[in-house]
Design a protein that fits this description.
Elements: H1 10-26, H2 37-46, H3 56-69, H4 76-104, H5 112-125, H6 128-133, H7 141-161, H8 166-183, H9 193-203, H10 211-225, H11 230-235, H12 251-259, H13 267-273, H14 290-303, H15 320-340, H16 342-363, H17 391-416, H18 419-422, H19 431-440, H20 447-456, E1 464-467, H21 474-481, E2 490-493, H22 502-509, H23 541-545, E3 550-551, E4 556-560, E5 563-567, E6 572-573, H24 575-587, E7 593-595, H25 601-604, E8 611-614, E9 617-620, E10 633-635, E11 644-646, H26 647-657, H27 676-694, H28 698-715
Parallel strand pairs: 1-2, 1-7
Antiparallel strand pairs: 3-6, 4-5, 7-9, 8-9, 10-11
Amino acid sequence: MTDKGGNPPYRAAACASAGVLLLYVLTLAPTTAWWDASEYIATGFSLGIPHPPGNPLFVSLARTWSLVLAPLGLSPAVRVNLLAATTSASAFFFFYLIAHRTLAQLRGFGREALIGAGIAVLVGATAFTVWSQSTANEKVYTVSLLVVAAVSWLVLRGHDLGLDRPKGQRLLVGAVYLMALGSTNHLMSVLPVGAVAVFVLLARPGILLRPRFLSRCVLAVVVGLSFSFFLPIRAAQRPVINEGDPLCDGFVETAAAIYTNGKAGCPALASSLQREQYAKPPVTMRMAPFTHQLHNFFQYFDWQWARGMDPDEPVSRKRLPFTLLFLALGVAGLVSVWRGDRDAGVYLAVLAATLSLGLVFYLNFRYGYSIAPAEIPLSAREVRERDYFFLLGFAYWGVMAGLGLVRGWQWLGDRLGSARKAAPVLAVAALPFFLNMNWANRAGDYAARDYAHDLLNSVEPYAVLFTNGDNDTFPLWYLQEVEGIRQDVTVAVVQYLSTDWYPKQLRELTAPGRQRPYIPVEGIAYEDRAPPAASVLGMTDDQLRRVGGGPLPDSFTLRIGSMVVAYPAGMNLTPGQRVALSMIRSSAAERPIYFAGSSGEMAQMGLNPWGVAEGLAVRLSVRSLDEPRPRSYRQVPVELGGDWFDYDRTVQLVDDVYRYRGIRFRDIWPDMSTDNIPLQYYLLTAKLAMLADVAGDAEAVARYGDMAQDFLVVYRGGAKAGRSE
């Protein structure tokens, strides 16, 4: 037990943290995952620059961590995933200390406080989003979770030691430094600042008038923020992944951008720090009604304690009893903190409000991906579920719920005459573990990695592959930059082509001397060819600056060989699509042109009639539609889409090249916003079965029909978690 100023149970906290780490390691992803995981693994491994604001602290930590673990023989992806697991588990070291501090100050708790703190950690660590984000480095938020937990402990510990004393003040300065340093990982790290300010004003406002203390805080902020100098320094070295290209000309303009958070100074760095690329409106312009945004938050809260009770995404009647139970337990936990220490109660109450209502208001999400009213178009919804933004709040609330449960245990024990007799009530803490296990567990999940392998190896040497978004882009980057597979392929993200930096990077990376060579992959018989003699893009910087978007003022015709595409006046083309058309015209003579599917950017650019599927990729057939087609080309019946396939090439890819781990057979496909991946495989194999039927190949019909059925089961949620239609 510890009283104020006593010795905290660091050994017990370390044991609890180690137990959490073991759980995360046992359920760790063996490779990359969907969404941003591939981007962060690739940039962490290669010391690249991810999407704005660039996350320099994370990139440096991931690279250092990866080098430290390299002698263990672990794959780069596992090493970076272990960083997520370790930082998250380390956060629960501090949460254990906070929970123990609370219980130790309450009447009737002796050694039971050690057990109670462990209960609190168990609940927080097994909340669905916390667990699933700790087993794959999908985001950088586990680092911020560690920062916030450490800051909270330093503030409370400093209070116990006396904020009017040097040691207590040093811990408070340390908390300020961690928030400043953590902001170079993500601004989520500064979320405790309001709680810290209120806490200091209530507990020891006088220290804010002490020049020595204030000067140390200012110095801590200056030193912490200086980590952002990494961005322009690394950008100058031209890494392959260099998003935003935050290059600066000198120290003064770099410092101005860093210390004003992008309000002044170096334009490229300022734009990256301000995330101008995403054009987020001010919070006063709500992207959806605030009541709907609160509903969206409650939906995610509803997932945390019993995700496995119902596979459907909206708030569920099956999950709701558990949700209300842990909501009430969290409130009871906060009340327990308040009764033990009013100052700490204020700090944790303000932090709770910040991590929930405050964050909902600040993030200003569009309509929720899965709960938007039917009349709301996809363009007005979030592109995926955003529960990970509330990772900190769910971990924190789990700890508070654990404290509330322990207080209930004490109350029941008093009435039964023995804490041992009341001990069965503590089994409630294990509910999130059992009810979230199948949904948070990423062990054995190779889906994103194998999809990238399949898509990249669908295209011929030195191809240009236009992609539509995160999941057909970032896993490809991972495969190229981490595993070194098919680095000859130019993966071109059409949306990024609207920026002022990305087209220039593609031009630079594919110029003679920088174009990476084709290295054959075992099992794929592509005929090698000489590297292209020119870059994929022939536009000058001045021409790129003049590219606009919107309706075409005049009609024009795109001619490549015998292919003629007519674009009428008034047709809408984004700047990125116009740059993409220029790339096609510049490079089609030397480089095969592919799209990651025909329903996205290819359709919007009016190129579908010239598309021929080669496995998952769709090749732009640079020929007149009136010319005879090769014998291997076959068309799906028009009433079923009328797609053209290079049948022989697709059969070879599906039978001999593709890998389907976690895609063809799966008990649970947890993320509905990525179910288009198994859907692609389903449509591919179902259409192959149709084409085989037309050819009279009964064996192929049965084989591809069985495969299609397997993929359809996964698309619907998996063998054990089919969603409602």
